[in-house]
Predict the structure.
Amino acid sequence: MKAAGTPSVLVFDVNETLIDLGSMTPVFERVFGDGRVLRTWFDQLVMYTMALTLARQYKEFWALGAGMLRMLGAIHGVPVKAEDVEALVQGMKTMPAHADAAAGLQTLQAAGFRMVTLTNSPPIPGSRSPLENAGLDRFFERQFNVQTVGVYKPATAVYQMVALELGVPTSACCMVAAHVWDTIGAQCTGMAGALLTRPGNAALPVPGVPQPDAVAADLPSLAAQLIQMWRS
């Protein structure tokens, strides 16, 4: 049995953590002639969600993603057409699950963890969520997004909102994410943090910065660590 006061709720990030950002590489290869621009686009997108939050502004994630594509086109001197933007937005909404995601989630579900998601991506009116399109929604009791509070992760209000909605203290939750800025934000609210080091992601070894409680390169390995710590 788990010890009293240890996390029993796993809060999963979605984009890149559970679903495969790399599936959009062909869009960037076609528009820019270089699929590596995908990583630049995503990193800049995250940076501007944080910039808007710090400036007390909020714009929808899908609109920001499209605007960032146009911005990169201006920077690189590449014309970005309406059909390019549409291809990107559709790609953002229909990314497939990572190959290891379902197995890891199944293991955690069987171990008795409550599981929810928390994403920067708001609901899509009249269509399924990216998580549903990836076939992973069946593992989660609820899907949370930042639009509810009008600020982006890693603002502490986002993580506090999830705990409040679930009726549990933040100490009962663990944020599971592929981005260390996400685990830092969660840990600063009192949550635990588990880092999934998808390619291009790693922990930040700076003294005084909250370090993840668990780190692994794939979800089944991370699941084994969490079960060993909190379920055995």
Notes: The chain has a mean pLDDT of 94. The two ends are 6 Å apart (CA to CA). Strands lie at 9-12, 114-119, 142-145, 173-177, 192-196, 214-216.
